[in-house]
Amino acid sequence: MALRKRILKVTFHMPAGDVVFDESTNLKVHVKKDCMSSQNRAVIEIGNMTESVRQELLSEFTAFNRRKTATGQKSPAYLDMEITAGYIETDGKDTSTVIYHGQVVECGIMSSPPNMVVRITCYTHQVDKVSYFDQAPPFEMNFKELVYWAGDKMGFDRAHVTCDTSHDNDSINNAARSIYTAGDLPLYLEQYFYPDVAAYIDDNFLIVKDRYKVLNPSDTVHLSDFIGMPCWNEWGVEFTTFFDSSIKCAQAATLNTVLNKSMNDGQWIVMSIDYELTSRDAAFYCHVLACPPA
């Protein structure tokens, strides 16, 4: 693999405008994404942060405020953010892509001056956990319309909602009469046709599909560059590779490893991705857990 320039950016959509931290900043990013999960976590450590941004984050997202929010003493503050990672290829092409979109939940200081580092914890669609809605959907609608209604309540426009099920035109009566928070909606959508339908959030998309459609056999990623030796575990295989945006959860993968050739036969299903990305250290990796197909 040819050496390429890394791209790593963390963007916070602050009230006064976007604040972007890029490779010029000391960044350490850890993102954990699980297959068909309704919520994923990102932990970001940032050095060289300006005083104004640091104070704004710390004042709103300390552990003290989190306890007050949980007990109803303080209204929750929400700050959208996104993480972009990738490479600049040898021909100058920018191949970076957004790998995470969520909200800031907690912020704290990791080290004292002069090398002050701030740790920021984020979750996907954290705003939906306590986002109430008081307007129920129409009494009668088909399932696809219900999915779009749920997406609207979670802040997704139709371009960010994917609905592809065999029940799209099935009529739903008296929908969502006992659901009060938007965070419950993905599980609620699944319950209509459980276990045939899966509903989850990934990369700022609400995805609702038949379970057999979640995995696209024609979309297979072929991996041959590894950090260390891929190993067996009780669930299947685990391996570490250089960051690759083509690796996604609920995706088929084939391995071509020299050190453990027993893994080269057949396909594996990516169940979990652990991104370990840094701007100045060596790590720019994907730690992957994959299982054999059912």
Give a description of the structure.
The protein has three domains: 123 residues, Thrombin, subunit H; 75 residues, no CATH class; 72 residues. The protein is flat, with a radius of gyration of 21 Å. A hairpin with a 5-residue loop joins strand 6 and strand 7. It is mainly beta. The longest helix is centred in the middle third of the chain and has 11 residues. The strands form three sheets. Strands 1, 2, 3, 4, 5, 6, 7, 13, 14, 15, 16, 17 and 18 form a 13-stranded mixed beta sheet that branches. The chain has a three-stranded mixed beta sheet with strand order 9-12-11. It has five helices and 18 strands.
What structural category characterises the helix and strand content? mainly beta
Q: What is the CATH architecture term of the largest domain? A: Beta Barrel
Share of helix among residues? 10-25%
Mean pLDDT level: 86
Number of DSSP strands?
18
Describe the largest sheet: 13 strands, mixed
Q: Helical element count?
A: 5
> What distance separates the N and C termini?
33 Å
